[in-house]
Amino acid sequence: MINIDRNALHGRNWEGFGSDPYLSGMNAYQYVLGLQEQGVVATPKHYIGNEQETNRLSDSYSANIDDKTVHEIYLWPFADAVYAGAGSVMCSYNRVNQTHACQNNKTLNGLLKNELVYRGNVMSDWGATHAGVESALGGLDIEMPGGSGFMGYALLAKVHDGSLSEARVNDMVTRIFAPYFLLEQDQSFPKLDWNRDVTHDHYKVNRELARAGMILLKNLRNTLPLNASMDRLLTIFGAAATQYDGGLNPGGGPTGQGYDGAIYQGGGSGKKDMI
User: Known catalytic residue: 125?
Assistant: First the structure.
């Protein structure tokens, strides 16, 4: 997940690399290289403008973004992922400027495939496909499960009646198989081995990252704890200053609803329900 963490309440922040497009892009670049060096197709997501979890499955949610902002912020990490050679990109649930992200000709064909010269495939998020021909013409190459089955034989019928060109279908097939053969998944796919140790010393890296990320506050002049008798007014500002009721994450929070305040936010498809 390489979306931009523009708000601390976004329920998928923990999956990404932060709010800096440059930092996210550099991390995405290295992440793609690391995965694909091992023969795994990297799939950067969620393309594009998927910056909140609230109503993420609703047709009413549209990320309306001007061209300058798209290029300077939201497209940047995906561009670096493409330059690293990502074999697949996942389009998102939301609309972009009122058009579904998985059938958006401007973002998929215009920005991704033409401007960034992306040669891999575009797959939908689960249930994010809303049409067959419109999605194929808009730039979608793979429909993932969870929808109504717009592609497959249904799409083949559209070729026969002239609604979709055979050339576009061939392009979809080429984009799907290109990373498969490029990463030699037809030859060197690893055998299942439950005894294989894939943990190595990752815990050491995680611990060092946690240490480096700590912030130490110095209690100068014994400011804390505050004296209740002091004739002063303490004001807290910001989106995380109080319980957030109906914010950017409901529906993807740890409880499944996510209305439990800013600090308790988290979730997405990788969430774990709290007891």
Answer: yes
